[in-house]
Write a structure and sequence with these properties.
There is one protein chain. With 278 residues, the protein is of the alpha+beta class. The protein folds into three domains: 57 residues; 98 residues, Endonuclease I-creI; 110 residues, Homing endonucleases (Endonuclease I-creI, Roll), CATH 3.10.28. 39% of the residues lie in helices and 19% in strands. The chain has eleven helices and ten strands. The strands form three sheets. The protein has a four-stranded antiparallel beta sheet with strand order 1-2-4-3. A hairpin with a 2-residue loop joins strand 1 and strand 2. Helix 5 packs parallel to helix 8. The longest helix is centred in the middle third of the chain and has 13 residues. It starts with 6 loop residues before the first helix and ends with a strand.
Length: 278
């Protein structure tokens, strides 16, 4: 006989352990309606709507959203991260990337600081007749993430909160997500510079972020193209300020830290017009 057909077992789960019909159905391997039917068949008193609501409130998960964890999430939200509210009182952090290794690392980092989540999963999309995989991560629901959603999405569109203060952790995660180290053609003998893809933000938010960078001593400015640039004079200082690329993702994003100003050796023209380098 199925466990949920036993009155003692079902009463223990529903009233002693205070599990919902949905939670019991997952444990029993059936649907929620089956559990509700057997609660009725076995004449087990069912909770009222008000009792169910009080139980839901007690089950809301909480996480200490401060310090490293908060800065980490703020940096991700400046880039590709997002927060959704599946229920009015809780939020869920989500992230999509073409790099599975990054999301596995991200999941581990968040979990270590108390923000647990599900497994990284893949979807396959099509563009111009070609398939491309995209990897996704989503955290469990937490009450504090709903507050984070209100800060970054006050009207449903992502903004830069006016109380955000850049730190090395925030800037590092922002750089990993939406920053790049630009290497001009070597023929110009120019040093690399950093550029952030901030096209999704309005001019006010871009100016706010560039001013934040300037307040840290870096030469930065918001461009008409919708991007923020850190001058070649400040690029090395910025990379030192945010610290090295995390070791676990160095194989994926370590190239963003490869600052190389050595010019190419002059091209020599040999016999028959063949070019070579010394």
């Amino acid at each position: 006989m199925k466990k949920y057909k036993e009155k003692e077992w079902l009463t223990e789960k529903y009233h002693s352990e205070m599990l919902s019909a949905s939670a019991i159905s997952k444990e029993a391997g059936c649907c929620k309606q089956t559990i509700l039917k057997w609660l009725h068949n076995l004449q087990i008193p069912v909770r009222t709507d008000s009792e169910a609501m009080r139980l839901v409130k007690r089950r809301v998960k909480h996480v200490q959203l401060c310090g490293y964890l908060l800065e980490f999430l703020e940096g991700e939200l400046l880039g590709d991260g997002s927060v959704h509210i599946p229920k009015q009182r809780t939020g869920r952090y989500t992230h999509s990337s073409s790099r599975r290794e990054y999301l596995v690392w991200l999941s581990g980092e968040l979990s270590a600081w108390g923000l647990k989540g599900g497994a990284v999963y893949k979807t396959v999309g099509k563009s111009w007749g070609k398939e491309y995989p995209t990897w996704h991560y989503q955290s469990n629901q937490y009450a504090e993430l709903a507050d984070l959603r209100k800060r970054f999405y006050p009207a449903g569109k992502k903004i830069v909160p006016n109380d955000l203060i850049l730190t090395p952790i925030i800037a590092r995660q922002w750089f990993i997500g939406d920053g790049c180290l630009r290497h001009p053609p070597h023929t110009k003998r120019e040093r690399p510079y950093i550029e952030f893809c901030t096209d999704c933000f309005n001019k006010h938010d871009r100016d706010f972020l560039s001013n934040q960078l300037c307040s840290k001593g870096f030469k930065a400015f918001s461009r008409a193209s919708g991007r923020i640039r850190i001058s070649t004079f400040s690029t090395q200082d910025f990379l030192k300020w945010i610290g090295p690329c995390p070791e676990q993702i160095r194989g994926v994003y370590g190239y963003k830290w490869q600052y190389d100003t050595s010019p190419l050796a002059p091209i020599l023209v040999g016999a028959g017009g063949v070019t070579s380098r010394p």
